[in-house]
Amino acid sequence: MQIFLDTNVIIDFLTKREPFSEEIKDIFQYSVEGKYELYVSSVTISNTYYIISKLENVTVAKKKIGQLLELVQVLNVGQSTIRKAIDSRFKDFEDGVQSFCAEEGNLKKIITRNVKDFKASNLIILTPKEFLISES
Q1: Are 69 and 33 contacting, i.e. CB atoms less than 8 angstroms apart?
Q2: Taking residues 16-34, what's their average pLDDT?
Q3: Domain containing 75: what range?
Q4: Whether the Cβ atoms of residue 109 and residue 3 lie closer than 8 Å to each other
Q5: How far is residue 67's CA from residue 110's CA, in Å, rounded to a whole number?
């Protein structure tokens, strides 16, 4: 199964942000075991790098992004993705970019902590906990 991960769950995982990190950690573990293929957008990589470099430092940010790249596939955000997000009903532009990136990558599910922000999405939107429950 292929799953798209929103930036907030990536940051939860990489920074071990409690109480959110445990469920996303389980999803990554299942991925390592071959149960899921995980995808993120190129925007997620740059945003995550920036946030971790501010929370910790550049060296840690580079190391964590390197580790992340061993666990996920990165989908590019291109002009068509940006246009769709601009013309969409998404209240938050970045959420639109994430949703359309996943859609253009032919993915059906997005895991995020902010389900309400994806009301305009055509995809299945779940929290990490909801996803784990639905898959058990």
Answers
A1: no
A2: 92
A3: 2-135
A4: yes
A5: 21
Q: Domain of 90: which CATH number?
A: 3.40.50.1010
First-to-last alpha carbon distance for the chain, in angstroms, is: 14
Task: Specify whether the CB–CB gap between 132 and 24 falls below 8 A.
Answer: no
C-alpha span between 127 and 136 (Å, rounded): 14
pLDDT at residue 20, rounded to an integer: 87
HSE at residue 37, side-chain half, CA atoms within 13 A, is 10
Strands in 124-126's sheet, in edge-to-edge order, are 73-75, 37-41, 2-5, 109-111, 124-126
Q: Does 81 score more than 90 pLDDT?
A: yes
Tally of domains in the chain: 1
Q: If DSSP states are collapsed to H, E and C, what string results for the chain?
A: CEEEECHHHHHHHHHCCCCCHHHHHHHHHHHHCCCCEEEEEHHHHHHHHHHHHHHCCHHHHHHHHHHHHCCCEEECCCHHHHHHHHCCCCCCHHHHHHHHHHHHCCCCEEECCCHHHHCCCCCEEECHHHHHHHHC
